[in-house]
């Protein structure tokens, strides 16, 4: 147990650590790819003498990633990336394991931001970000903390959009690896992880049946595809709303109804937003929704479901179950908002399955090593995860599943590489 981590950390209660250790032990047993990388890191010590600050949804799977980075020689500090997804027992366990933690479940907005800043005040050499909050603070409010930062890795679509906007304007001060854009991230984490964990969160929170009801999925990116696929599997009638014509065609060919949000609002029983944009459900939609409509969000920030518009139309708001706020509208209808409009799969659930996050966090760990090894040659820009690392994670995953695949012969490879007449 590290007395320094205990002394420096800001958490709810160190006594919660035993339950947190059990959670971390459980995911460790189900993350074989990350376990393999941990052994590699323990032998090679790629982060020896370096400070790493991590901002991710602070639950057990994230905790194990932090321990893998620590095993690579780093002095690790971690904070949350959403006020409602932090698990206090996991925080306590990490502190006992010598990792400095600045995070609590459901802090006030001012305290939440202060904890992010405290994590950055350790003056990290490397960062792992989720949604771009660390990068934004470093570039706007605390440029005094930029000096040591070699680079980092970003987890989400939302964060990468922010990074690319900074990069386009020439404002980015260090290289960032766009982990979300790697095949082994969005094909599995965004689709199968989000698809399952969103419905885990909704089902455990509402205790209502999905079969036979109409589910409106707002946005048909990889996360939307997963949410729609799992809703269909639960027996729902699925409606997709989109602003992208290509994605809308894809949704139609996948067997879903596609219509404008204003039309979908009239028939939906469950609504799930997964766009990364703001106000995709707003006042005009509430005006035509059915009594009892259930609203949820699986995008990174709590701006997709417009809460001010909902409050403006309401005469009362009360908590009817944990993570369910009932809005009584002026005309008598009731709307139910899950997890304050924050990420329903994490704020009202445990997030993605461990086996899925095994691949995502393997990419994070390898990307962090990549940016540390090459930060000078990469320059101050956003880069993709190299295909070799992406494929390496996939091969490790296949090996853990006991699955073998074919390899190209020399003749086949030469054939594919040739431009001459076949």
- Strands ordered across the widest β-sheet: 9-8-7-10-11-14-13-12
CATH superfamily of the largest domain: Adenosylhomocysteinase-like
Number of self-contained structural domains: 2
The first-level CATH class of the largest domain is given as Alpha Beta
Q: What composes the largest sheet?
A: 8 strands, mixed
What is the molecular shape?
globular
Strand content: 15-25%
| CATH architecture heading of the largest domain | 3-Layer(aba) Sandwich
**End-to-end separation:** 65 Å
* Low-pLDDT ranges: none
- CATH fold type of the largest domain: Rossmann fold
Calculate the mean pLDDT score and round it. 96
User: Helix segment count?
Assistant: 18
Radius of gyration: 22 Å
Describe this structure in words.
By secondary structure, the chain is of the alpha/beta class. The protein contains 18 helices and 15 strands. The strands form two sheets. An eight-stranded mixed beta sheet has the order 9-8-7-10-11-14-13-12, with helices on both faces. Helix 3 (32-44) runs parallel beside helix 16, helix 4 (60-71) crosses helix 16 (354-378) and helix 9 crosses helix 16 (354-378). The longest helix has 25 residues, at 354-378. It is globular and about 65 Å long. It starts with a helix and ends in a 5-residue tail after the last helix. NAD(+) binds at residues 156-158, 190, 219-226, 242, 277, 298-300, 345, 352. InterPro entries: Adenosylhomocyst_ase-like_sf, Adenosylhomocysteinase-like, Ado_hCys_hydrolase_NAD-bd, NAD(P)-bd_dom_sf, S-Ado-L-homoCys_hydrolase_CS. Its main location: cytoplasm. Its EC number is 3.13.2.1.
